[in-house]
Amino acid sequence: MSLIVLALVVGALIGLLVQPAVPAALAPYLPMAIVAAMDALLGAARARLEGSFSERTFVLSLATNAAFAAALVWTGDRLGIGEFSTAVVVVFSLRIFQNLAAIRRRILGG
Amino acid sequence: MARSSRGWRVAAVALALLAGVSVASTGIRVARAQAAARSRRPALLELLKQRTAEGDQLRGKLRDLRRELEALARQEIGASGLSGEVATLRLAAGLTAVEGPGVEVVMADSPLASRVGRSDPRYRIQDLDVQRLINELWALGAEAVAVNGERTGALTPVRMAGNVLLVGVRPVGSPYKVQAVGDPERLYSGLLASEVGKDLRSWSSLYGIRFEVRKARSMSLPAPSEPSSRSREGLEPGGGRRSPGAVGGGWGGG
Question: Are B12 and A59 in contact (CB under 8 A)?
Answer without folding.
Answer: yes
